[in-house]
Amino acid sequence: MDSNLELCAVIADRIATNPHKRITFAEYMDLVLYHPEYGYYSTQAVNIGKQGDFFTSVHLGSDFGELLAEQFAQMWEILGQPVPFSLVEMGAGQGHLALDILKYVQQRYPDFFAALEYIIVEKSPALRQVQQERLQDFKLRWCSLEDIPNNSITGCFFSNELVDALPVHQFILEAGQLREIYVTTEEGRGASAVGGFPDLGRLAWQEAEGRRQRAGGRRNILDSEFLLSPTLPLPHSPSPPLSDSSPSPFVEVTGELSTPKLAEYFDLVGIQFTENVYPEGYRSEVNLAALNWLGVVADRLQRGYVLTVDYGYPASSYYNPRRSQGTLQCYWHHQRHHNPYINFGRQDITAHVDFTALERWGEGCGLNKVIFTRQELFLMMLGLGDRIASLSHTEKSISQMLRRRDALHQLVDPLGLGGFGVLLQSKGLRQTESSQPLKGFTMLEQESI
């Protein structure tokens, strides 16, 4: 039987065994992405990169990892050269970033390399196998966050495009009230059904999509690219067909909130949907899994940093009244579309990151916000500009120089990867340590989130 039919059966069974004959969108998203046998990250591990469904900064060469290594080496110095200094990479993809970091540190910072403990937290068994094969020349440890004892890590937890792939709850405003969007089957469909997929006619994304395709990268839709026009229709991106060309077996219904944490979330980030500025039918997402994840990370960290690189917005922009259909997107063979109810287990599903929520929840968990900036500024401060300037002296041919220059420019393109958010938080630092400026954030202005 085709794997997507197997996954559909798993989802349908989960719905059938639920007392309300429905599951939250977060539970649905968790199944289609992370089911151990049929989920996207279990079966499509090879579909990451330029020839796959999406690619990230890591797939543009070793520069991203090497520049991160420069920052990690300075962190080690600031913390007094502890042994071990633990680097905990959460969601390591195919292991490219870990390899770039370890090779660079081994060559440039042998003392730091000797003190380094590299840990990978990876949920996908398929990706873990790819990582272990790629990193077989280095000594690493694979584990879950739960396997790490509380207050045991001195060093840095870091992630690159992890939080966007955590399962999100979806909600909709009906008669001025927050209602949650659930997934059910036709048998469970009732009067509370909503009309299929999001109607994105309010957002004119055509120009943004063209720029994203030119810029490359994964999900590079930035504030400046949301034209927020109520008059221009959205030209729908082509949606890949189901393997059996049949209609989706799942539909959406609305109901009461599944947990009070959803309403509490908006108190945390300072958003009031009771105001009349939000239109009827406004829908978006809430990433409670990100808060749970950050809380666990904060518990495991004794002294050091948490570095989060991802695409997203502050809450005031994320929940802008004119961004009325949220940020949920699907990726299949470098095509972006908005239908999460096809290609089960064969397409990536993501939502942008609410950095305000990460900052404020982190504060409640004992994490201090150090700074929030954009990837373009962060990498330039770490020396990417010098690398661009030296290309004519380091590359052997014009074609190699042009290819590498293009890759470096993509890393800092403000309409693409360069517009990603970079949030740095800390815990347990002494005053003398926290007062020392970090290379990647030197002379940068604090952005409000």
Can you give a write-up of this model?
- It is a single chain.
- By secondary structure, this protein is of the alpha/beta class.
- Helices cover about 35% and strands about 20% of the residues.
- It has helices at about 5-15, 25-35, 40-45, 65-80, 95-110, 110-115, 125-135, 205-215, 260-270, 290-300, 315-320, 355-365, 375-380, 385-390, 390-395, 400-410, 430-435, and strands at about 25, 85-90, 115-120, 140-145, 155-160, 170-175, 175-185, 250-255, 285, 300-310, 310-315, 330, 335, 350, 355, 370-375, 420-425.
- The strands form four sheets. Strands 4-3-2-5-10-17-16 form a seven-stranded mixed sheet, with helices on both faces. Strands 1, 6, 7, 8 and 9 form a five-stranded antiparallel sheet that branches. Strands 13-12-14 form a three-stranded antiparallel sheet, with no helix packed on it.
- It is globular.
- Mean pLDDT is about 85; it is low at about 195-215 and about 220-245.
Outline of the structure:
By secondary structure, this protein is of the alpha/beta class.
As a percent range, the share of helical residues equals 25-40%
Number of strands: 17
What would you report as the Rg, rounded to the nearest angstrom?
22 Å
* Strand line-up of the largest beta sheet: 4-3-2-5-10-17-16
Explain the layout of strands and helices.
Elements: H1 3-17, E1 23-24, H2 25-34, H3 40-43, H4 63-78, E2 85-90, H5 96-108, H6 110-115, E3 116-121, H7 125-134, E4 141-143, E5 153-160, E6 169-174, E7 177-185, H8 206-215, E8 250-255, H9 261-269, E9 283-286, H10 288-300, E10 301-310, E11 312-313, H11 315-318, E12 329-332, E13 335-337, E14 348-350, E15 353-354, H12 355-364, E16 368-374, H13 375-381, H14 384-389, H15 391-394, H16 398-412, E17 421-427, H17 431-434
Helix pairs in contact: 4-5, 10-12
